[in-house]
Amino acid sequence: MKAETKTLYIDTVGCQMNVLDSELVVGSLRRQGYTLVHEPTAADVILFNTCSVRAHAEEKIYSALGRLARHKRKHPDAVIGVLGCMAQKDQEEVRRRAPHVDLVVGTGQLARVPELVDAVKQTRQPQYALSLGRADAGKDTVTASFESFDPPRDASMRPTPFQAYVRIQIGCDKFCTYCVVPTTRGPEQSRHPDHLVAECRQLAAEGCKEVTLIGQTVNSYKFDHGDGRRTRLSDLISRIHDIDGIERIKFVTNFPKDMTDDLLDAVRELPKAVKYLHVPVQSGCDEVLKRMKRLYTVGSYREMLQRCRDKVPGVAISSDFIVGFCGETEGAFQKTMDLVREAKFKNSFIFKYSPRPGTKADDLFADDVPEEVKKRRNNDLLAVQSVNSLDDHRSRIGQTVEVLVEGPSKLGEKQPAGGARQLTGRTMADHIVVFDGHDRLIGRTLPVHVREASPFTLYGDAETGEVGGDELTAREPAAPPRLSLPLV
Ligand code: 5AD
Ligand code: SF4
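Above: the input record for the complex with iron/sulfur cluster. Below: its predicted structure, written as C-alpha cells.
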C-alpha cells in the first residue's frame, strides 16, 4: 500500500484578508501533519485562495487550474481545492470550468478545510462548503453562515514573526455598486473585543511587535455587548495599546464616512498607533461617486482629509481609485486628477474598472469607457501621484526616522544571508525605507538617517549605535534609488 504523503501547496492572491486566511489554513493543516512545498506538482494537496475583486485575478486562477488538469489525470490522488471569494461566488462555474477540482470552500467555511480534505481522500468525492447567498435566507441566518475563521495562530506561517494581521471584522454592508465583497464575504460582523485582545496578547507573547487590524471597513468596527456598552475601534486600539511587547498598531481599510473624531484622537494620543490612514476615495467626481453609491461627496471627503490632518499632525494618508468606471467622462476624470494633485496622498492604488457580474453597476450601467482610455487614465493618475510621492519623500531627506526592520529588500534577497545586506522596513507613517545592515537587525526598531528618495522608497543609513553590542551600519553605501511602479 502506498504510504500517505502529507504535502501542501497554497497559492494566495488578493487582499490582506486572504493572506491571513491562507496563514490560518496552512497552520490548521500543519497541525494535521502537513508540510508546505513550493511547487504545486510536488504536493498532494494543492490549494488556491482566490480573489474576485477584478476579472483578471479570477482568470489567473482558471489558467493555473487549467495547467493542473493533466497533472490530476496522471495523479488522481492529488487533492485540488479552490478557497475564498471565487469559491463562494462562483461554485458552479468553478465546477464547470475546472471539473478536476475536488474541494470548493467559501470564505465563511474555511475552518472545515482539514475535515474536507480528509473527506476527499477517503471518499474520492468532491466536497463543497459554502455560506448562504445574501438572498437565500433572512439576514440572521445568512450572517450565521459566514463564520470568522480564527483558529490558533502559528508564528512560523507569517511572512515575519514580529508582524501579524488580526481580523477584527468580517464582511461588508456598504454595497458599493462595483464591488463583489458584500457577496463573497457576507454581512458585516465585528468580533468580540475580549477575543481580539486575547489574540493580540498571545501574538505579543510569541514576539509579535506590530499588529495590523483588518476589516473591509475597519473604522466601522463596533461591538455591542448587549448591556448598553459598545466598543468602538478607538476603544479597541486603546486596549491593545496596553499590551506589553506590542509596539505598533495599524488598521486598514477605512471608509471615509466612518472616520470619527474619537478614532483620530486615539491615533494622535496613543504613541503605538501608526500615523497612517488608508482611506479610499475611488473618484474625485460627485456624479461618479453617486453611481458608485459611495455615500459621500468629494467635498465631504476633502473635509475629512482636513480633519485627519488637523487632528493627527504629520499623518500620512493613502487612497484607492477606480478609473474608467461606467459613465466616467474626461471631465469627471480630470476632477479625480485635480483631487490627486491637491490631496497629497502618500500613495494611491489605482485600478481600472472591471465589471463584476452580480453587482449593481454591472446590472444598471454600461461598461462604456474603452480599455485604452482606462489604461491612459490609469497612467495619467499614476504620473501625478508619483510627482507628489517624490516631493513628499524628498522633504524627508536629512531626517532620522524610526524603522521597524522587516527583512531583506528585493536586492537584499539576492545578497548572501547572515551578513550585511540591503534591508527594508517601515516608518511610523508607513514609509518604506531601505538601508544596509546586518541580518540581526531584522525585527528591531531603529533610527535610520534618510539620505535619498525615489517616489516609492526612502534610502538611508542605520544610525551607528550599540544594539546588542554590535555596530549597526555596514560601510558600503546603499544601492542607488530604483524607480519602480507601485502596485496596481
Ligand atoms: N473594478 C476595479 N477595481 C475595483 N475595486 C473594487 N472593486 C473593483 C472593480 N470592480 C478596487 C477598489 C477597492 C480596491 C480594494 O479594489 O478601489 O478599494
Ligand atoms: Fe467593497 Fe465598498 Fe465594502 Fe469596500 S466598502 S468592500 S469597496 S462594498
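Notes for the reader.
The chain is about 35% helix and 20% strand.
Residues 371-394 form the longest helix (24 residues).
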